[in-house]
């Protein structure tokens, strides 16, 4: 059955605990050669009517159990601005406030397209759930205080997922806009049933914490290696965007683990002048580097060691992977189908009798 599943349905059926378990299963399959994914590909064109550049981005991933392939794509108009001295990236589709992110879900046992999903809610949960798996295997067992930089959707799902992985007693949050961090504290405190404190600086949010999550839209570092001295020994660090942490942090911690080691691929249309509109300096495009760090999947499978002492400082570089959409997308599809939610679509719309 092909189902059209919107964000409202996804929000109704998706449980963070189940999402963390689904991601752990998918990563374990990856370590065993039963799952794979393609690093993200972005295609850029200077044809945008109202913006700096058009960007098409896609991720692809598949796993054997359940037999699923997911293609997630985005269609964006990109703008770059400076906010309080920090370079940020804004995007929209057609007009500000509208976005196009979509997932095509396929059952690989017979090739059937089983789901067409908006990616809004799922996008945040799949990254947060993967952070939760990272914390399960890499954070200290007694970690109970979390510091969060950022107060948007990713900050919410990271906090929820880390609360699944560890029994949190307190969360401290900082973002530049007071009303945003206060709203986050009120909402997440009520949802998780724990103390959530809005802080007036990054330093106060990160002081004496056991875990740190950076969840901002900044394209320059908001976390620097000197901040490591603020935390309790054996801190666990996880980020949302590569650019949020400086290169020195990678060198200063004891261990770094990732989801993927391959670099993103950029395909660019445009003259030299048009291409110059895109930020391409090394500080901004650090996420495109190939790395050689240990894989979280291999830690889960017992192929390599993760944390070996409570004193180790560990950074989990939560890189994006199409496998996340296969794992969480299939979970959403199964839960929506069981609840009789979503809009059924004739499979005849996607098949034909002409050989291609």
Describe it.
There is one protein chain. The chain is an alpha/beta fold. 30% of the residues lie in helices and 29% in strands. The strands form two sheets. Strands 1, 2, 3, 4, 5, 6, 7, 14 and 17 form a nine-stranded mixed beta sheet that branches. The protein has an eight-stranded parallel beta sheet with strand order 10-9-8-11-12-16-13-15. It starts with a strand and ends in an 11-residue tail after the last strand. The longest helix is centred in the middle third of the chain and has 19 residues, at 120-138. α2 crosses α3 and α2 crosses α10 (323-338). It has two domains: 2-123 and 323-350, 2-Layer Sandwich (ornithine cyclodeaminase, domain 1); 137-264 and 277-317, Rossmann fold. It is built from ten helices and 17 strands.
Order of helix and strand elements from N to C terminus: EHHEEEEEEHEHEHEHEEHEEHEHEHE
Please tell me the overall pLDDT: 92
How many structurally independent domains? Answer: 2
- At the fourth CATH level, what is the homologous superfamily of the largest domain? NAD(P)-binding Rossmann-like Domain
| Unreliable spans | 282-288
Q: Can you identify the CATH class of the largest domain?
A: Alpha Beta
Strands, count: 17
Structural class: alpha/beta
Helix content: 25-40%
Tally of individual helices: 10
Query: In angstroms, what separates the terminal alpha carbons?
Result: 23 Å
CATH architecture annotation of the largest domain? 3-Layer(aba) Sandwich
User: In the CATH scheme, what's the topology name of the largest domain?
Assistant: Rossmann fold
The radius of gyration is 20 Å
In terms of DSSP E residues, the strand content is 25-35%
Give the overall shape. globular
- Tell me the major beta sheet: 9 strands, mixed
